[in-house]
Each structure stands twice: as C-alpha cells, then as structure tokens.
Amino acid sequence: MASTIKDVAKMADVSISTVSRVINDSKPVSPEARRRVLHAIDVLDYKPNEVARSLVTKKSNLIGVIVEDIGSNFISQILRGVEEIGRMYKYDILLSSSYGDVESEMKFANLLAQKQVEGIIVISNLHNPKLEYKLEESKIPYVIISNFYEIERFSTEIDYEKASYEMVKLLIEKGHKNIASLAIRRDYDRTFEKKKIEGYNRAMEEAGLKKVNLLVEGLEASDIEDEKENILDTVKRENITAFFTSYDTIAIHLMNMLLDNGYKTPDDISVTGFGGSYISDIYRPKLTTVKVPYYDIGAVSIRKILKKIDKKESDLSENLVLPSQILERESVKELK
What are the DSSP calls for 149-212, one per residue? Predict the structure, then answer.
C-alpha cells in the first residue's frame, strides 16, 4: 500500500501541516524538522498527490496543448519548441489531438481546465471562434498558433507579405517574367494567403510584370487535380516559366501534376514553396522555399505564457514577428 502524508508525519514525529509546509515550501520549518521529514519521505517513498498539492499552491506546473493533428509537420516542429522550453522551466505538457474536429477542441479545453493547467496553447488551422470564447472565459492564459488563419489576439508569426515578396523577387532576378501564384481559396480574406499574394503582387507590379493569380481549395493532391485544366491552360496561354506557391505541399503536388502532363521541374517550369517542411528537402528536385521558424514560434509562445503566469507580462495582445529565410535549392532554374 502506498504511503500517506500521515505515515510521513508519524515517522518524522511532526504534524501533518509541517510535512505539507516542507513539501510545498510554503512556510518556514526548522532545519531539524525539515531533515526528518525529507528522510521519512525518502524511506517511505512517499509521492504527494499532485492534484491536491496544486489546489493548495495554485501551481500545477502543467501547460495544456491542443493540436489539430500530431502528425502534421509544422505542428510537430512547434510542439518541440513548446515542450523543450517548458521542460527548461520545469513545466510538463498535457497533449490532446482534435484531428480536425472543432467539438473535440472544446471538449479538450474543458478537460485541461479541470486538470488545473496554468496555460493553454492551441496549434491548429481550424477556425473555431467558440474555442476562443471558451478560453477567454476560463481566464487561463492561452495562445492560438496557426499557419493559415490570422489571429486577432497575441500571435507569433513571420512577415508573410515580405517573405513572399522576397521569394518572387528571387524568381525575377533569376530571369523569370511570366510567374504565376498558386494559393488556397478558402476563407482567403481571413488568412495568411492574402498576405502571401499581396507580396507576390507587389513584386510583380514593381517589376512591371503581369500578375497571374490562381487558386485551389486546399492542400491535397485532389485539389490540384480539380484545377488541373485551368492551371495547364494558364501555363500555355501565359507562357508560365515559374510558380510561386503558398505551401510546400501545394508545390510538390503541383510538380507531380506538371510532370504527369509533360512539364519537368525545373527544366520546363520552376516552382517555389512556403514553409520549409522536411519533405521539401527530401523530394526531388529539392524545393526552393521560405523557411518558417516553427520551433521558435513554439518556444516564444510558451515563454510568453510563462511570463504571464509569473506576472511579468500584463497581457497577451502584442504580436511578435520572427525572421524567415529563403532556402535556395534545386526547383528553380536560372533563365539565360
């Protein structure tokens, strides 16, 4: 049978409240009494009830994390940053995956609140206003991280417009003049897709080049296939030599579709991605892309929450912009 706090108090010849003070380091205890209590805890292998302890100290040292899909590459990178920084500050992570279900996100938010977590981080590309309202109502410090939707409250992100502008400028410097953009249509005005295309448009306008904006419904190969005829017609009509795409996944599905229809990357058409996911480095040709610092986004986000918990920050309203990087690889051809 597991030892209890009463067993510790009896062996150390002190009161239960003295044992509690030693465990929680809440009030002064004489060195001799502390020594006896710690010795008793060690001999009896006593494990404090962490839930009860958190109710007393108001500290659970737990951060709740709700993710859309643990298998997503960008989520796993962010999660690594969250977990490693949390561990540095002696916080454990309670992880739940909604697998794209908004009601599951609501259920997990309730569960995490019951577990006395001190902060909540949501890493998801779902649009769930009910979840934001629920988190606001709970008074628990929280951060929502998305690489698709713009977040109105605190967020850590890159300058999507600037990064896209610089990528298109690179294509222009490589001699490309007929450049098309390919982004996601869904909720366009509320997402980073709008900023990415604004960057593309600005670079094309400055160079006096014609803008060719194409849209697909999502990230799947089937979404590219659904727009295949329009994409191929545009390639022929506008003599497209390069595509600026808004995600690595879109870029790779596009390269596959183009190859199936007689266009090889980069010999016939150059393609760029966005994100810097691991697949961009192992696919052939290796993808020229914008590297988003997802690990740093996770690390900065949990640090912001920990500062809020320690009352070193008054709110979570300021957006933080991190630097991005263009990774030049094999999917872009320089035109002579």
Answer: BPPSSS-EEE-HHHHHHHHHHHHHHTT--SEEEEEE-TTGGGBHHHHHHHHHHHHHHHTT---E
Q: Is the peptide bond before 141 cis (omega within 30 degrees of 0)?
A: no
CB 64 within 8 A of CB 32: no
Q: Are residues 243 and 213 in contact, defined by beta-carbon separation less than 8 angstroms?
A: no
Q: Is the dihedral of CA 319, 325, 330, 336 positive or negative?
A: positive
Peptide bond into 266 cis (omega under 30): yes
pTM here is 0.81
User: Which residues of the chain carry a pLDDT beneath 70?
Assistant: 1, 25-26, 48-58, 312-318
DSSP, res 143: E
**Closest by alpha carbon to 112, among 87, 88, 131?**
131
For 211-225, the DSSP string reads -EEEEESSSSHHHHH
Q: What tokens does 211 get?
A: 């803008």
DSSP 27: S
Please list the helix, strand and coil fractions of the chain in percent, rounded to the nearest 5, in that order: 50, 15, 35
**Single-letter residue type at 64:** G
Phi, psi of 119 (to 5 degrees): -160, 160
Question: In this structure, are residues 158 and 323 in contact, taking their beta carbons and an 8 Å threshold?
Answer: yes
Whether 85 contacts 32, CB under 8 Å: no
Q: What is the DSSP string of 98-121?
A: -TT-HHHHHHHHHHHHHTT-SEEE
**CB–CB of 291/276 below 8 Å?**
yes
Rounded distance between C-alpha atoms, residue 142 and residue 212, angstroms: 39
| 207 CB-near residues (< 8 Å, 6+ apart) | 172, 177
- Per-residue pLDDT of 192-226, as tens digits, reads 999 999 999 999 999 999 999 999 999 999 999 99
DSSP for residue 157 = E
